[in-house]
Amino acid sequence: MSLVAAVVAVALAANQPMTLPSNFDRNVFMPADTGAPANGGSAGTYHPTRSAAGLAARLVANGAPQDLQLAEKALDAVLACQELHPDDPHYGGFWWNREDGVVEDLNAVEFVLAHLIPMMIEHGDRLTPEMRKRVLASVRLGIDEVRRLDVLIAYTNITALDVENTCLAGQLLDDPALVERGFRKLLMWMAFTDTNGTVYEFNSPTYNRVTLEALSDLCRLVKDQRTLIQARTFATRIALDVALHMHRATGRWAGPHSRAYFYTTVCSDAPEIESFKRMIAAGGHPPRAGLPAWLAVAADTTPVPMQVAESADPQRGLALTTYLGKSFAVGTATKEFFDQTNPFIVQYVRPGQKRPGAIFCRYLMNDKWVGASYYDPDKEGKTELFDDGRFYGVQDGPRVIGLYTARGWGLDSSAKAAIIFTGRDQVDEIWVGGKRVTNLPADVARGSVVVVASGDALAALRPLTITDLGRGAPVRLVEKDGYLVLEMYNYLGPKKTFWEMEWPGGFYRGQPQCGFYAEMAERADYASAKDFADKVAAGILKDEAAPPFTYMATSDRPWTVEYTRDGRTLGIRVDLMQWEVKRRWTQAGDVPWPLLESAAARENRDGRVVIGDATLQCGKEAGWLFACPEKKLWVAGYHGMTPAPLSLAVPGGKIEIEAMGTGTVVWHDGAVTIDALGLKGTPKITGGHLASG
Fold first, then answer.
1. Strand-pair partners of 579
2. What is the DSSP letter of 646?
3. How many CB atoms lie within 10 A of CB 450?
4. Residue 345 in contact with residue 256, Cβ under 8 Å?
5. Inter-CA distances, 523 with 256, 458, 518, 566, Å
6. Cα first-last separation, the chain
7. DSSP readout, 649-687?
8. Which of 139, 135, 157 is nearest to 147 (CA)?
9. Cα–Cα distance between 627 and 665 in angstroms, integer?
10. How far apart are CA 414 and CA 366, in angstroms?
11. 3-state secondary structure string, 205-247?
């Protein structure tokens, strides 16, 4: 044994065994979950393959002899869940659970490889020769499946895993073709996103975290410098989105969310700002992994109040607006992305309480309510309430209009839009139509303004026209399992089919109307909740729809909603026949589709980005600028695929670069850091200096 090998062996032997997760099942050497599986089926005990792969990787990283022995047993269990029949269309894929026996969830191979490949790069020599050989063979088969699947670049978090796994598998297996495929996939994904604004799976507390972790692991381990800088720049831009949506007062990731689990929606998990700052702390200078330190400044010092607007896909009509106030954050999506979407959500401060309050919307069929999920039905927050609706929204500052209809009609006994407040016991006052309500349920008359006072925030809700598809469908406030709920029913009655909702069909006259106007306010800004209610009620509301007619696919039936007060207007128009949004506007005109627009950060493809006294000049590809003058910090990003001249002028200084490709330029109190591809010439710096290191 060499001296180095002996030293390593002694060090590993000194390691303490890792504490195993409480759900570790020693009978099969895999963690176990209880509940119903993700792909349906009966409740029971299941053993997720990706969890076992992650556990094996952690055991190998810890390196204690007992851990290494256990890791090989866990790896054996993982490899037994790989599809090895060459005639199977998903040869090389993995079962999601040990119990499945077939590849159904096509993402499983990505999640498993994201554990196995870094493990082999960093610590593969800790495994026995036989296990190393088996894992490498498994990776080869798995990455072939990844290549065949070639996931759509709009599927953000899985594309990130594809890029990570392909680049690193190419490195591990010494396969230049894989390295090149991974790099090209990264370029395609980045170019697609640059055209739209933000990532397609926009502002997701769960899936954007997966994306950032995949890019961080890639940056930590990849040797190809093109891939490193491209991935690092892209991760920084995605993380800037996260920083801009961190609400400092609550510590929560402000909405709207393209996809979010219920525990995030109701704020029952740890504040997202904690995990975000841990990810930043994992970086270096420059960050090989993790995220650059200046993002912590961005999360802590953005102006309040501030509105952030950006697009995810203008062609599909996907965009998001977030308003971050002193005590609350409110966000609205232009439309739903998925049944996990939070298209309208508010988080707000409740002084002295463990959790902030949350307000969110859903369209619910058959009085569906919060139910157990496949994750862990016995733990708080591990439940779901998926949205059954199709949503359109528009927002300006703390004002929102939201319109809803059902995603589909079947044999139904109820259909309603619901605005849900967490913590009924933390609601201090409820006002309906200018009168205080102390007993629930309480009916809400057409045109009435509902105001809820809770914590440091005031929430006003004004139901719009609600089509009754039966008789006496209520609009009411109720308490349900500790939640306060404003229910706006389109139907409540005997279970029935809705012939008039079928298109093509002989009786179709358009979707039923259902929607709301919402407005948030700081509680300290009003003498009382009633004063705020009176203020909202004084606004001019236009809520008009063309008369119904039997549809022959020849004309629209517009529904126009507009609210005006104090010189500000917010409006939206949809076609009830095709349920398509036709226009969204404010007092400034039609709402644009910006790549990124806020007081702290801006992005466009014009070649010139300005925030305050700072100006970025670059090529006419995606360029962005973040500004924090009080910290003397400015950061510019350029995503050009070919090098172009770049200059950044800030108060008291300027940097001029002959040409650079994808990369970032950081100016922090005169110290300049450049991390870019295709850098040409010597940067010319006035009023500052090139940072060392």
1. none
2. E
3. 24
4. yes
5. 22, 5, 15, 19
6. 38
7. EETTEEEEEEEE-SEEEEEETTEEEEEESS-BSPPEEES
8. 139
9. 12
10. 4
11. CCHHHHHHHHHHHHHHHCCCHHHHHHHHHHHHHHHHHHHHCEE
Distance of alpha carbon 357 from alpha carbon 339, whole angstroms:
22
Which pLDDT belongs to residue 201?
96
Mean pLDDT for each 10-residue chunk of the chain (693 residues)? 48 75 95 70 82 97 96 98 97 96 97 98 98 98 98 97 98 98 98 96 95 95 96 97 97 97 94 92 62 93 96 97 98 96 98 96 96 48 85 98 97 98 97 96 96 98 98 97 97 97 95 98 97 98 97 94 98 98 98 98 98 97 97 97 96 97 97 96 96 73
Which of 283, 279, 282, 245 shows the shortest CA–CA distance to 264? 245
Q: For residues 343, 344, 348 and 350, what is the CA-based torsion angle, rounded to 10 degrees?
A: -100
The number of beta carbons lying within 10 Å of the beta carbon of residue 365 is: 19
Q: Are 312 and 202 in contact (CB under 8 A)?
A: yes
Pick left, alpha or beta for residue 168 (phi over 0 → left; psi -120 to 50 → alpha; otherwise beta): alpha
Q: What phi, psi does 538 have (nearest 5°)?
A: -75, -15
Query: Parallel, antiparallel, or unpaired for β 684-686 and 653-660?
Result: antiparallel
Residue-range domain boundaries for the chain: 1-149, 302-590, 600-690
For residue 381, what pLDDT is reported?
A: 42
Q: Give the start-end residues of each E strand in 36-99.
A: 44-46
pLDDT of residue 373: 53
pTM: predicted TM-score of the whole model, two decimal places: 0.94
Euclidean distance between CA atoms 97 and 105, whole angstroms: 10
Q: How many CB atoms are closer than 10 A to CB 684? A: 11
| Element housing 168 (H / E) | helix 156-172
Q: Are 323 and 330 in contact (CB under 8 A)?
A: yes
Write the CA distances from 10 to 5, 14, 59, 68, 523, integer angstroms: 9, 6, 17, 14, 62
Q: What is the pLDDT of residue 380?
A: 42
Nearest to 546 by CA among 554, 556, 555, 558: 558
Q: Rounded to an integer, what distance in angstroms lies between the CA atom of residue 355 and that of residue 34?
A: 27
Q: ∠604-606-608 over CA atoms, to 5°?
A: 90
Q: Which two tokens stand for residue 490?
A: 């389109």
Q: What angle do CA 482, 487, 490 make, to 5 degrees?
A: 150
Task: Tell me how far apart the alpha carbons of residues 52 and 95 are, in angstroms, rounded to a whole number.
Answer: 12
- Residue 426 · residue 353 · CB < 8 Å: yes
pLDDT of residue 287: 54
